[in-house]
Write a structure and sequence with these properties.
5-stranded antiparallel sheet; alpha+beta
């Protein structure tokens, strides 16, 4: 009689295990599927903010034009570097004599403020210049940063001989994880 009880217990245990294998089997199946997936890649994203202006003076009462602009951008904890580039074209080839005006008043001044409102960079140009001006790396204040450009320039529309201009560009590099099953989606972990 003893073997019959053992056999009944074994059959009952087999039925219970067979009915619950789905729940228990999910864990190894999930681990197996995750092992087949490629590992995530650390990607570097570059975002760009730009302020530019070409001066064209159309008002006969004023020979200079004001080109002041402000642009804001976000810096997150994954931001690793900020680069600032400034270019100014303040043409001075004989326009003083040609137009009889003072050109000393022409300038471009760019200022970068961090999320705390602190001025971290400023540059001023009073003649044509092209240069990479600054690079900032971590630690960077997280939040909304502000790029401000103040400028006064001249640009005449009639003959097109003189058109002052400027371009200030900020490149923001951030790192994120790209998972192979989510194409073109970068996540910050």
């Amino acid at each position: 009689m003893r073997p019959q009880r053992a056999m009944s217990a074994f059959v009952m245990l087999a039925i219970i295990m067979a009915s619950s294998i789905g729940c228990i089997g999910l864990v190894p199946a999930r681990e197996f599927m995750e092992d087949l997936r490629d590992p995530p890649k650390l990607e570097t994203l570059t975002d760009s903010v730009q302020l530019n202006h070409t001066f064209i003076t159309t008002d006969t009462d004023s020979i200079f034009e004001d080109g002041n602009k402000v642009q804001e951008f976000e810096v997150v904890s994954e931001t690793i570097e900020i680069r600032v580039y400034m270019e100014a074209q303040l043409q001075s080839v004989g326009i003083e004599e040609f137009l009889g005006i003072l050109t000393e008043a022409r300038f471009v001044r760019a200022t970068l403020y961090d999320a705390n409102g602190d001025q971290i960079w400023t540059e001023e140009a009073v003649e044509s210049e092209r240069k990479m001006t600054a690079t900032f790396q971590q630690p960077l204040a997280e939040g909304t940063w502000s790029l401000q450009v103040e400028a006064i320039g001249y640009g005449e529309e009639f003959a097109g001989l003189v058109k002052d201009s400027y371009k200030v560009q900020v490149k923001i590099e951030s790192q994120c994880w790209e998972y192979p099953n989510e194409e073109d989606v970068c996540t910050y972990d």
